[in-house]
Write a structure and sequence with these properties.
With 181 residues, the chain is α/β, with parallel strands linked by helices. It is 34% helix and 30% strand. A 5-stranded mixed beta sheet has the order 4-3-5-6-7, covered by helices on one side. A two-stranded antiparallel sheet has the order 1-2.
């Protein structure tokens, strides 16, 4: 008894190469179509030209949010500067509010769930026209299940959720700025 090669069946040579090539070409075509129709990944936001160079003005103590905002701005093509000058638009952070409220209890009436949130109020001033946009706001929230038996892991998870919410709120802010052109 001889075993045939796995690609030979009933005396025919069956190859997977055309299937792989077809799949690859279909994927390439899909990417081309999505690019051609104006689709962008969620992180890529087309900012108005006056936001090419930005100074972030803020009194908030939430340094983690400011770092995330700076990263999102830079990923969108803006140059974030450390001092205000006549060539830089101003992104004024009016308030950053982290929220945490009990939203569920266990059988012993201990907190088992929290709703955590992040809300930011902001405005922009154009470097070219010196026009200030009306105050805008962006916010998000999530339910956080708390396990009192693992306090260190819960604290770490909560910090991670706040970082993700900072990214989300920063992207919301830039989309609002882009719409306010």
């Amino acid at each position: 008894m001889t075993l045939d090669h796995p690609t030979k069946r009933c005396g025919m040579n069956v190859s997977r190469t055309p299937f792989r090539l077809t799949s690859w070409l279909a994927g390439l075509l899909l990417v081309a179509l999505l690019t051609g129709c104006g689709y962008h990944l969620r992180g890529a936001i087309d900012l108005p030209q006056y936001m090419d160079r930005v100074y972030i003005e803020s009194d908030t103590r939430d340094k983690e949010f400011l770092l995330e905002l700076k990263k999102v701005l830079q990923l969108s093509g803006a140059e974030v500067v450390n001092t205000a000058d006549s060539n830089a638009s101003i992104l004024r952070i009016i308030s950053v509010d982290q929220q945490r409220a009990t939203s569920g209890h266990d059988g012993n009436r201990n907190a088992a769930q929290y709703r955590i949130g992040l809300a930011v109020t902001f405005s922009t001033t154009s470097s070219t026209t010196k026009v200030t946009t009306p105050q805008m706001s962006a916010q998000t929230s999530q339910i956080f299940n708390y396990d009192p038996a693992q306090p260190v892991q819960m604290e770490r998870q909560e910090r991670t959720l706040f970082q993700q919410m900072s990214t989300n709120v920063s992207q919301q802010m830039l989309r609002q700025i882009a719409k306010a052109r």
